[in-house]
Write a structure and sequence with these properties.
This protein is an all-beta fold and 308 residues long. It has a single domain, classed as TolB, C-terminal domain (Neuraminidase, 6 Propeller). Helix content is 0%, strand content 44%. It is built from no helices and 27 strands. The chain has strands at residues 9-12, 28-32, 37-43, 48-53, 58-63, 69-73, 79-84, 90-94, 99-103, 109-113, 115-116, 119-120, 127-129, 135-138, 162-165, 172-176, 182-187, 193-198, 210-215, 227-231, 240-242, 248-252, 255-259, 265-270, 275-281, 287-292, 295-300. The chain has a 5-stranded antiparallel beta sheet, with no helix packed on it. It has a 4-stranded antiparallel beta sheet with strand order 2-27-26-25, with no helix packed on it. A 4-stranded antiparallel beta sheet has the order 3-4-5-6, with no helix packed on it. A hairpin with a 2-residue loop joins strand 22 and strand 23 (255-259). The radius of gyration is 18 Å and the shape is globular. The two termini are 25 Å apart. Bound molecules: magnesium ion. Magnesium ion is lined by residues 38, 81, 125-126, 183-184, 238-239. The site of magnesium ion has 8 residues, from strand 17.
Length: 308
């Protein structure tokens, strides 16, 4: 199961990438059997990873202590992206119920957001938590434009926005309204910038397939206009994470693409399935977990995630 997998390997596009990887470290396939998997989230306290198998309407759990995989939640309301907040709670985006929820310490589910100014959200896709406790998420329409990953419905909002949930008011405000399909998002390590991908090209000819970088206002609650940081050279950027050296490790069609802080593609990790999302994990944050089409992969790197 953990032997060398066909179609994996590294592509060094800039010599600096050699210092970011461990040349003899192999890609491991930890599990396979999903239809379209996304949303890995690593829990250090329990040493396990949660992710979504969206069309199969279930969430899976991989145990780092023994490598076992089990079903964590079924049905999952076609959950997609997940993250772990500062208190260690699971926060999840759900397509079918068109909401963002938090799994409380007692196991109950608390709705973080399901409407914006009275209208139902489209189908929240990916979510991150800022150090001030605010929850930022994207709301493209993938869960309502077909019945495969949710349920077909009209958009009540009529736009695909990025939102911020305020921990004090418990309300959401739109932060960016000029995306076609906002998708993955992540803060820079110092939280002065928020990176957001736009996968609008999946359903629109000549639509975007890039990642934008927004500066964050001094109040921590506003975004700058957001210039294009990088455009994908293979398929789409979906989910991504940033290491402590400000390098971006993003999903793409042929694997993981690594960009330096200037937006230069410095290397790739080739994966034999289309990659959707990644997250850092392991007790030192130096293991990258990769959800890719039907499978969960992992690779040890010579960098550490700025967050999991
Ligand atoms: Mg996504």
């Amino acid at each position: 199961m953990f032997g060398t997998i066909d179609g994996t390997g590294y592509e060094i596009l800039d010599p600096v990438f050699e210092d970011c990887i461990i040349g003899h470290a192999k890609i491991e396939r930890l599990w396979s059997g999903g239809r379209w998997v996304e949303g890995p989230a690593y829990f250090p306290a329990g040493r396990y990873l949660i992710w979504s198998d969206i069309p199969n309407n279930r969430m899976m759990r991989w145990d780092e202590t023994d490598g076992s995989v089990s079903v964590f939640r079924d049905p999952s309301n076609n959950s997609n992206g997940h993250t772990v907040d500062q208190q260690g709670r699971l926060i999840s985006c759900e397509h079918l119920s068109r909401r963002v929820i938090r799994t409380e310490f007692d196991g109950t589910l608390k709705v973080i957001a399901d409407r914006y100014r009275g209208d139902r959200l489209n189908s929240p896709n990916d979510v991150v938590v800022k150090s001030d406790g605010s929850v930022w998420f994207t709301d493209p329409s993938y869960g309502i434009i077909m019945d495969y990953e949710g349920a077909r419905a009209e958009s009540e909002i009529g736009a695909c926005n990025v939102y911020r949930w305020d921990p004090e008011s418990q309300e959401i405000e739109s932060m960016a309204t000029d995306y076609i399909k906002p998708n993955g998002l992540a803060f820079s390590p110092d939280e002065t910038a928020l990176f957001i991908t736009d996968t609008g090209g999946t359903h629109e000819a000549d639509g975007p397939r890039h990642m934008r970088r927004h500066s964050i206002g001094a109040d921590g609650k506003t975004l700058g206009a957001g210039e294009v940081f990088a455009t994908s050279t293979a398929g789409f950027f979906d989910g991504f994470r940033i290491d402590t050296g400000n390098r971006i490790w993003t999903s793409a069609m042929d694997g993981i693409h690594c960009y330096d802080s200037a937006g230069t593609l410095i290397g790739k990790i080739l994966i034999p399935e289309i990659v959707s999302n990644v997250c850092f994990g392991g007790l030192r944050g130096n293991r990258l977990f990769i959800t890719a089409t039907t499978s969960l992969y992992a690779i040890y790197l010579n960098v550490n995630g700025s967050r999991l």
